[in-house]
């Protein structure tokens, strides 16, 4: 299946993506560990079935030194021993924040307490914004059927200029 619409060649979409990328840069420069950012983005993308974002975040994480073992176990992080308690809290927040329609309570008090235990206010702000941003990115890509497989790490670096 080909993409329904080429968002990369449309003027309005290009303007939007430039601003989206600049917003994402705020998160990349935040004190939230980059590895946590990639794991959270990967997990939300898996839940949303976004092949483009799964491709991007798997490759970006690997290029930044993330192990294949941890990347392969993100989908089963609760049944794995390779994630820290802080990463588990972030992954739980990502799941609950992504599955809003599936869970009437949204993010549980227990998950929020774990996030508060492991992250400071700036990291929490970045984490909440990241979950929101990756869900928006997933929706953009899924709506137009942007397929995974062609992403190369760093290919959007110019968008941050």
From TrEMBL:
InterPro entries: AhpD-like (IPR029032), AhpD_core (IPR004675), CMD-like (IPR003779). It holds the Pfam family CMD. Residues 15-96 form the Carboxymuconolactone decarboxylase-like domain. It comes from the Bacteria. This is Carboxymuconolactone decarboxylase family protein. It comes from Kitasatospora cystarginea. The lineage of its organism: Bacteria, Bacillati, Actinomycetota, Actinomycetes, Kitasatosporales.
């Amino acid at each position: 299946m080909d993409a329904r619409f080429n968002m990369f060649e449309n003027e309005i979409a290009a303007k939007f993506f430039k601003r989206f990328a600049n917003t994402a840069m705020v998160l990349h420069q935040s004190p939230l560990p980059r590895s946590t950012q990639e794991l959270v983005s990967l997990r939300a993308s898996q839940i949303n079935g976004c092949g483009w974002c799964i491709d991007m975040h798997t490759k970006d994480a690997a290029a930044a030194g993330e192990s294949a073992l941890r990347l392969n176990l993100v989908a089963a992080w609760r049944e794995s021993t390779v994630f820290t308690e802080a990463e588990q809290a972030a992954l739980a927040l990502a799941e609950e924040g992504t599955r809003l329609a599936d869970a009437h309570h949204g993010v549980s008090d227990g998950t929020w307490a774990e996030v508060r235990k492991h992250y400071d206010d700036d990291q929490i702000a970045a984490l909440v914004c990241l979950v929101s941003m990756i869900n928006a990115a997933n929706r953009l890509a899924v709506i137009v059927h942007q397929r995974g497989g062609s992403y190369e790490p760093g290919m959007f670096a110019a968008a941050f200029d």
